[in-house]
Fold:
Amino acid sequence: MPVKKFFHRKRPEPPKPIPPGQYVTRDFPVLSAGPTPDTALADWSFKVETEDEVIGSWNWEEFQALPRTKVTVDIHCVTKWSKLDTTWEGVSIDALFDQLFTADPPGDYVMAFCDGDYTTNLPVDDVVGGKAMVAFLYEGEPLEPEHGGPARLLVPHLYFWKSAKWVRGLRLMDTDEPGFWEAYGYH
Structure:
């Protein structure tokens, strides 16, 4: 009786470089640390604050009136998937900060806070200079709740867990504090 050999189907080579250990998917996997919030646009707001005060706040209509940015970027998740050439539209963090500050924003760190008590910490340098936005359109359509809608932070040069879903604001800080995953020992 002949011996059967089993072969694993090899994944095709990605059309461009991706981080080591990643695979390209056409899907948009859904991963969340808790239930998906369902926030009505009439109840949605976004604020920028320091450790002491709120320095800017917008409701959905006011936020939609801010200058918009559209980008096409690759996104990569720590669970090893990559999705190439995704198109997002929203308000860049630079545009938000331009509304509020005449010079550099106060603090060296920012904490994004979200519905569902999720937070993620970042150096300010990782969200300015065209590196991040609050996105509300994905592929030309409103961002679905399971993907972070009505709005999510988008920081495509970092793994996607830093692109916090259901974002509601940014807190500028002088010192780094752990976000949701860092509080559980991740770095």
About this structure: The CA atoms of residues 61 and 111 lie 24 Å apart. The helical segments are 60-64, 93-100, 180-183.
